[in-house]
């Protein structure tokens, strides 16, 4: 039985003072729930959030990591640095990292392998561009991202993975894939995992939907049988809105 997992992705928002204010309000709103919950925040906020959420079930995640332990990589953060802070999750391969910072399926694969050396759970993002969907290539693109991203990764590690399907055309645009479109792709991803590994591994992987998830559409999306949660952008910046999604 897969437990629903709602993760907020703050992107490049919130100073430490703003993060502290959010945490204070969110902890008051957050009550015991069977929904897995996490905030993926900018690096400067992570240590503060780990401390703020230490007596709760709210996890903390990074938004990126480098695949080397250390070296001449100005501006990058290593897995060891995240481990020292005590983060629980790390987003890998977000479309904005792919689009603006040269993330590829190869670097996604290297980052996954490095994270699997630790207890930090990767949230692997996949998703197609609008022109790829319009050209009928959505499944081809996501299938390739899945296969190349997971190349050489054991089924034991893959079973711990969280996959977030985020159609690029629905991120921050106000457009959302219909629940049926999201369900179709999440089912395709699970079938792909079964082909790469086996049925038990595929059944154990949490598959989230991301792309303009809001309180108004969360219930309809989350009621789809192959969708196990959501990676939430803008709506995770306000405690009340994020809590409304968790309470879907």
Mind explaining what this structure looks like?
This protein has 248 residues and is of the alpha/beta class. The protein has a single domain, classed as TIM Barrel (Alpha-Beta Barrel). 44% of the residues lie in helices and 15% in strands. It is built from twelve helices and eight strands. Helix 3 (79-85) links the parallel strand 3 and strand 4 (89-92). Helix 11 (215-222) packs parallel to helix 12 (239-246). Homodimer. Belongs to the triosephosphate isomerase family. Pathway: Carbohydrate degradation; glycolysis; D-glyceraldehyde 3-phosphate from glycerone phosphate: step 1/1; Carbohydrate biosynthesis; gluconeogenesis.
Order of helices and strands: EHEHEHEHHEHHHEHHEHEH
| Radius of gyration computed on alpha carbons | 17 Å
Number of domains: 1
Backbone shape: globular
The CATH class, by name, is Alpha Beta
**CATH superfamily heading:** Aldolase class I
Strands, total number: 8
CATH architectural group: Alpha-Beta Barrel
Distance between the termini: 18 Å
User: Mean pLDDT, nearest integer?
Assistant: 96
Secondary structure category: alpha/beta
